[in-house]
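User: Please predict the structure of the protein below. I'd like the answer in structure-token form so I can feed it into my own downstream comparison script.

Assistant: Understood. Taking the following sequence of 452 residues as input:
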Amino acid sequence: MDEHYDAIILGTGLTECVLSALLSVDGKKVLHMDRNQYYGGEGASLNLTQLYEKFRPGSAPPTDIGRDRDYAVDLIPKFMMANGELTKMLVHTDVTRYLEFKQIAASYVYRDGRIAKVPATEMEAVRSSLMGLFEKRRAKKFFEFLQNWKDDDPATHQGLNIDDVPMTKVFDHFGLEPGTRDFIGHAMALHLDDSYMQRPARETYDRIILYTSSMARYGKSPYIYPLYGMGELPQGFARLSAIYGGTYMLDKPVDEIVTGDDGKFVGVRSGDETVKADMVIGDPSYFANVKGKSEPMVRETAKVVRAICLLKHPIPNTDNSDSVQLIIPQNQVGRKHDIYISEVSGAHNVCARDVYVAQVSTVVETSTPELELRPGLELLGPIYDKFVSISALEEPTTEGTAENIFITRSLDATSHVETIVEDVHNVWKRATGGKDLVLKSRAPDEGAQIQE
């Protein structure tokens, strides 16, 4: 292989495939390699045989829950915001032509020992079972304040500068109770912990507006999800990259990241072949040991515990929904991190009819990770089968600009894609010498194709 590439991409996770497609569309010559035989990396979607083989090697799947090919079970399920950045990327790159989406039926939050629907409008806040009468009025005023806010009209600011004041001050201004702050901050703004309270309120304002505008787009919930599982997304972006000249190699071992005497990236060795490029982008698993580097290029920041659960019924107390996003805010169960629960079903072509796939995940805080999932598992009702995994969350230790080695972050415990999008922007900026990723706008009616 004496061809020279602008970029080599290692791993076919969603982050890597999005970057590969964006670089290809930008006119770059891209080679994409993965040691696995399938797309998606750690976030792949597996059929029933693959699922049992991964978690219980040598054991055959049961015969009473449908056919092998009925299944595309996400190892790490993520939902997309209908108006979110990833949806815009799909539309901008025209990947929507390969995919079809279905709405997630409802968004819930766990509060005071029970499951309640997340209100996303002033009217829903007034009807919500999450709050008492007086708190509903305060919440209604808070949501009206957000909806009416105009940057250039001080009359809408109520004396608050959201670029300066911390979010906790805005909550104080409306007198919102701790439980209300919980569901707004964690189930709507999708913050991972409570540190957002001390940061300027603009960040949370933007996140809540994204939630409410996504909610308004199709009703029911702000989330959409690809038919046949999240593994379809990397494949869609891979197809796009190929149209623009990108080359894909699956089942290709990566034996060495080759660097020069100056420490800069030279190429990737697979067996006795070395292919050269100006830079490499890849997931952390490919950079555990880079020769010539005295310091590690990847560090572990935390561990995530996940349980994939097969159910024969929808999650109780969710109005028999065929799909839900359910968040247990940290404070509700005395934790430092939220617990995320997602559920999809045969309606999404990811499992047999009358089967539901629920996943419970959180960041590990103790020496007994599986026990930490108990508050979530207890909400699922009888579990037909369960697969538990613990994986390291890893991130790069350097920007990578000195070496032309740009490493992405592991997929986190959240059940939505917004953190993946942040990483795409981050890596793009590092790899292109500080250029922001700007998506050109397209015709407004070109949205994701939603199956009702």
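That's the full token string. The chain is about 25% helix and 25% strand.
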